[in-house]
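I hope you will forgive my troubling you with a question about protein structure. I am sending you one protein, given as its amino acid sequence and as whole-number tokens for its backbone shapes. Thank you for your consideration; the sequence and its tokens are set out here:
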Amino acid sequence: MQHATSGNRPSRIQVRNRARILSAALEVFAAHGFRGATLDQIAEEAGLSKPNILYYFANKEEIHVTLLGRLMETWLAPMHDIDPEGEPLDEILRYVGRKLEMSREYPRESRLFANEILQGAPRMGPHLQSGLKPLVDRTASLFERWMEEGRLARVDPRHLIFSIWATTQHYADFEAQVSVLTEGADSFGGAAQFLDTLYRRMLTP
């Protein structure tokens, strides 16, 4: 079968339908994981027939990989934006703030990523090696340089990065739990103040 993604430039209807499918798939994958999701569920969520889904994508895995590829670009952008010539503490706190804001704006994407990693990253393994690892290596080296210059307190730079991911993405990945424990209050406002204080105190020389 020739899919709508091949050949000539897609029409506006094709672009719109692909967007509907990807949005629906994001909802289904975030709720059920890759293994628990089905094309029938995606079709129902998108309001399209299953054959219509298969016109645009060969199978469930192609949809999932497409979503993960887009997610990686979005997820890594704040780390790319850390300015090596900026004030170290300001740059890191800005990064923390952006990651927290992304958890607020993209909770489904965060859970999609978490589900993939929990399964052993079967579809994202190459992206982690070729895209994420070099970026983290470079960022950790930058943090290490700032620490050697006395501009940041000495901590393990990689565990600092892991900690930022854990403390910000928690609010998306465990949204249901956070909502219950905060009794429906706006957890992000409190989280922003808390994390700013936490990392400021930790990293101030």
